[in-house]
């Protein structure tokens, strides 16, 4: 009853009582082998924390109470660090880590700016991750993450955690630390370098200086100092990690913990690094990339995970394995119904690539560039390029499938830029036939689009198709636009007004005449259609440019494409749901998506004026379009799957809103310069070839219809039809022409509506 009525001790007395109870343990105890959990130390530390929290609650925000003053003034955190480092009694390191974590996490007022907080925090950081799989790993990562969270709240505080280490003479083998500690006249090499601690420093740290000794015998200080002095034992063996000139120990400790065998610890360490790279402080970003092993960690792990992939992974599995998030890399082979050999390794690689991508996306700008360049040099060039350049078909297929997968997966603009430079090079001047192999990887990949192996061709074309959908201006410029800049595919013919619509001998001026077309010189006169027949199956072609902007009337373009394939080679109108309107809907949606990508590239609204173009320069469509046009020209002799992929890439290209791309790929009426070909002229030539070959195939139209129905699954598979490749090619050709017509229509209307 008396105890209940007695006034509670003032908080400060209570606080000092608990701290002295801890210090007395070290003076009085001879058995330092008993675990800390058998002592009252954890309870006293909890009480101290509770008192500090209560004190803060009872005061206005920002006012430091006497207990907190006592903790700061008497360097209690320094002493606790020393006890934790020595791990005396066993388990003390864990208790100290928990105390620091709770103190930083629960106290509202900013503590880290205080030298007697950030200095011991910095020292404790160095103890984290020294040894992997220690019993304190969980507490270590919690402590590091709370420090990261505090830095995220106040990024300028990170400067307290950057230490400049100057290499001293190699004979000494030690380092002098020049940090803000030494600027304050403090000795920062006290207890963290394995050197013996000075007794006077520790007696001050414990708060038992001469001013406080009225209540204890004089020899107490010496006893405590001696007992603490003995704790400066040799440090634990460090995990192997290079410590460069400037230390960013917070990063180094997190990097060590990313190697933890415990997946949860590793993920938390990755989260901590994610917070640190995003800090806007330039000094921290520089230190992060130049003085820590972060770049090496990212790239070396990417490389080792890539190399661990079995060569035999099915490209289809690489493409279809579910989306991977780096923090959720918890794959169980036993639980997976769709498991395949190498799936575990593939998911590990893709999830680490996702982590690198997200880290670079979040990182401060200069740090992001440095990290992405490291991935480019150490992983893309160092590891992936030799795989992509090999000659083994199996190896080419697997490595291209992996490249395709990471092209699809990358979301960071900075990493995408490096990936684009890796694949395509940085060249922006027009290509010439002589220098198409200037960037060897680009040359090899484009050549693979026309590989003897259909699988390699399709996979590489798919990779380029996805690359073209990425929000990076250099991709389209490097592959196509740089060769169209001068519009030297055109021949400049000023149109006389009186020539318009003049009909000579029943033909419209400028009509397509196959016999005079330089592309058709190889067709013998007996096989060509007469001009009359040709005109009956295609719209009247006039060099009619009613508008000043050089755009041909849209209905003429649409009809040109729709009427390219002769009626006897058309089969879609016999089958429901394969009309032109389906393509219109798709084209509208896709064009909208492409416009969103291209908006920030500030393309001109109309083509460069011909008077300003260098039309004399020799035109070369570029390696990429050359290969696509060559393949398009063989559409009647190639497998169906290859044709679908070639036409898919060409339709993607034609969706771009740049006026030169539109003119070159979608305007049938452009006056082509001698020896130049456009997409339309390539298709015209294919149609000419087709009309010759149709004559030789009996029952052509019924066979064509049967093949179409089989492709659509409307007819069961039956006996093999002869000329199947040609028939499937005709169907792809007809659909492709409808698709191009729809794209031209949608683009025209988008440009004419405000």
Automatic annotation (TrEMBL):
Top-level division of the source organism's lineage: Eukaryota
**InterPro entries (UniProt xref):** FHIP, FHIP_C, FHIP_KELAA_motif
| Compositionally biased region (Polar residues) | 184-196, 527-539
> Where would I find the FHF complex subunit HOOK-interacting protein C-terminal domain in this sequence?
621-713
Q: What is this protein called?
A: FHF complex subunit HOOK interacting protein 2A
Family (UniProt) = Belongs to the FHIP family.
Q: Where is this region: Disordered?
A: 184-203, 527-551
Q: Name one Pfam family in it.
A: RAI16-like
Tell me what organism the protein belongs to: Ailuropoda melanoleuca
């Amino acid at each position: 009853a008396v105890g209940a009525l007695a006034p509670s001790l003032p908080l400060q007395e209570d606080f000092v009582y608990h701290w002295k109870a801890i210090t007395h343990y070290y003076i009085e105890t001879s058995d330092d082998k008993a675990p800390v959990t058998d002592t009252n130390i954890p309870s006293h530390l909890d009480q101290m924390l509770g008192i500090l929290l209560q004190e803060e609650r009872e005061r206005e925000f920002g006012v430091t109470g006497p207990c907190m003053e006592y903790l700061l003034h008497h360097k209690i955190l320094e002493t606790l660090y020393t006890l934790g480092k020595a791990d005396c009694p066993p388990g003390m390191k864990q208790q100290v880590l928990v105390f620091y974590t709770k103190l930083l996490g629960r106290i509202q007022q900013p503590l880290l700016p205080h030298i007697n907080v950030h200095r011991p925090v910095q020292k404790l950081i160095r103890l984290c991750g020294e040894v992997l799989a220690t019993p304190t790993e969980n507490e270590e990562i919690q402590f590091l993450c709370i420090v990261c969270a505090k830095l995220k709240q106040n990024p300028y505080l990170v400067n307290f955690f950057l230490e400049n280490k100057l290499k001293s003479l190699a004979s000494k083998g030690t380092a002098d630390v020049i940090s803000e500690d030494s600027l304050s006249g403090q000795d920062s090499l006290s207890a963290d370098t394995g050197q013996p601690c000075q007794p006077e420093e520790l007696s001050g740290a414990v708060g038992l200086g001469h001013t406080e000794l009225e209540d204890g015998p004089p020899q107490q200080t010496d006893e405590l100092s001696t007992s603490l002095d003995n704790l400066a034992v040799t440090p634990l063996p460090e995990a192997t990690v290079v410590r460069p000139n400037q230390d960013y120990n917070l990063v180094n400790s997190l990097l060590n913990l990313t190697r933890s065998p415990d997946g949860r610890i590793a993920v938390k360490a990755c989260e901590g690094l994610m917070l640190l790279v995003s800090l806007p402080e330039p000094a921290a970003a520089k230190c992060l990339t130049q003085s820590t092993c972060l770049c090496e960690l990212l790239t070396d792990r990417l490389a080792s995970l890539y190399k661990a992939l079995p060569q035999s992974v099915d490209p289809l599995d690489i493409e279809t394995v579910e989306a991977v998030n780096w923090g959720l890399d918890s794959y169980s082979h036993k639980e997976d119904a769709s498991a395949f050999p190498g799936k575990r390794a593939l998911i590990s690689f893709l999830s680490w690539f996702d982590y690198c991508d997200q880290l670079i996306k979040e990182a401060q700008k200069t740090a992001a560039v440095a990290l992405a360049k490291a991935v480019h040099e150490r992983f893309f060039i160092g590891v992936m390029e030799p795989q992509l350049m090999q000659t083994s078909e199996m190896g080419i297929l697997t490595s291209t499938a992996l490249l395709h997968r990471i092209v699809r997966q990358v979301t960071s603009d900075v990493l995408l830029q490096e990936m684009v430079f890796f694949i395509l090079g940085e060249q922006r001047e027009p290509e010439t036939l002589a220098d198409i192999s200037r960037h060897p990887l680009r040359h090899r990949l484009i050549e693979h689009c026309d590989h003897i192996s259909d699988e390699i061709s399709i996979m590489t074309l798919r990779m380029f198709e996805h690359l073209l959908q990425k929000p990076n201006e250099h991709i389209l410029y490097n592959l196509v636009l740089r060769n169209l800049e001068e519009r030297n595919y055109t021949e400049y013919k000023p149109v006389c007004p009186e020539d318009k619509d003049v009909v000579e001998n029943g033909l419209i001026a400028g009509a397509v005449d196959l016999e005079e077309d330089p592309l058709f010189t190889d067709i013998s006169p007996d096989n060509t259609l007469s001009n009359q027949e040709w005109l009956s199956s295609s719209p009247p072609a006039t060099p009619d440019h009613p508008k000043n902007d050089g755009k041909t009337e849209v209905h003429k373009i649409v009809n040109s494409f729709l009427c390219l394939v002769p009626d006897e080679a058309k089969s879609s109108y016999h089958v429901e749901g394969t009309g032109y309107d389906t393509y219109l809907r798709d084209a509208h949606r896709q064009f909208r998506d492409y416009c969103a990508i291209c908006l920030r590239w500030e393309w001109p609204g109309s083509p460069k004026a011909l008077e300003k173009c260098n039309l004399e320069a020799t035109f070369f469509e570029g390696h990429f379009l050359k290969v696509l046009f060559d393949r398009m020209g063989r559409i009647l002799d190639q497998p169906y799957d290859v044709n679908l992929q070639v036409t898919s890439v060409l339709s993607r290209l034609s969706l771009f809103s740049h006026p030169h791309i539109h003119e070159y790929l979608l305007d049938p009426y452009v006056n082509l310069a001698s020896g130049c070909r456009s997409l339309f002229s390539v298709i015209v030539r294919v149609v000419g070839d087709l009309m010759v070959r149709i004559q030789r195939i009996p029952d052509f139209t019924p066979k064509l219809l049967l093949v179409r129905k089989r492709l659509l699954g409307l007819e069961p598979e039956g006996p093999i039809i002869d000329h199947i490749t040609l028939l499937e090619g005709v169907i792809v050709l007809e659909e492709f022409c409808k698709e191009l017509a729809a794209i031209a229509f949608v683009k025209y209307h988008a440009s004419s509506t405000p």
